[in-house]
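Colleagues,

Please find the record for the two-part complex below.
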Amino acid sequence: MKQYKINRSKVENLPSDEMIAKHKSFNGFQARYKDVVKRNKIPLYKNKKMFLFLLLVGLIAYLVATEWGEEEVDADGNPIEQTDETGHSTQGK
Amino acid sequence: MEGSKSSNRLPNEKVLIAAAKVNPARFAPLYEFYYKPIFIFIFKKVRDEFTAEDIASKVFLKALLNIKKYQDRGWPFSSWLYRIASNEVNMHYRNSKKMTTVEIMETDVITLMDEIKEGNEVNRQELVIKCLAELPLPVSQLIELRFFDRMSFREIGEVLGVTEGNAKIRVYRALDKLKKVVGGHAT
């Protein structure tokens, strides 16, 4: 909401240099900036790049886990015994 | 009406902006140089030093928070600050429950009256500024920038992020709207 008022004097009411200097403080401004930046730090999952990275890591972890847990089975559904190059069973080692 | 609001550039401005993008502490020279003109620009629209201080602080904070997005399109950095300041002042008008009185110089009103060919009687001046307050904020803002902030069309274009020609068209459309509202009140 605003309204206008005509200043009919020849002198414009402007703030003095002292008044402006009183309000100008880069240190105060910097402190406010740091406060805002700290307060509004975006959570990792809300960062687009970080979200994709975390998704990729999760996917790889899932694939590795499922691959690790799978047992090879023969045509009858019995687990195939893992053997080393000497022909000995590796199961139970 | 060729003012020099935004044409007053800080030497090595591009270097300083690039430095501030990397390290916010390097924003200091830009803050120190532009604080006064931005404070005055806001003060003229709110007429209260503490409100002006609060809005100026928001303007510089927004500028620093978004400085990485700032792109140099050949316009001075100040035009970007004036744009943020204009938006913040408009937001203040919208959110404030108190009526804000904008003081304007009689000489500026006379220039506006001449432009819309409304004569210079005191009653007429009062009617015109009453009608100006009834216009939507983006429209009255154009008239303020041109006649009360005494900006050139080029500077208005820089503040609004449009070309000089487009700024001129917008200002004349705003004047037409003002004339219509004044005409409506006169009949």
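Chain A touches chain B through 24 residues (CB under 8 Å).

Comments are welcome before we finalize the supplementary table.
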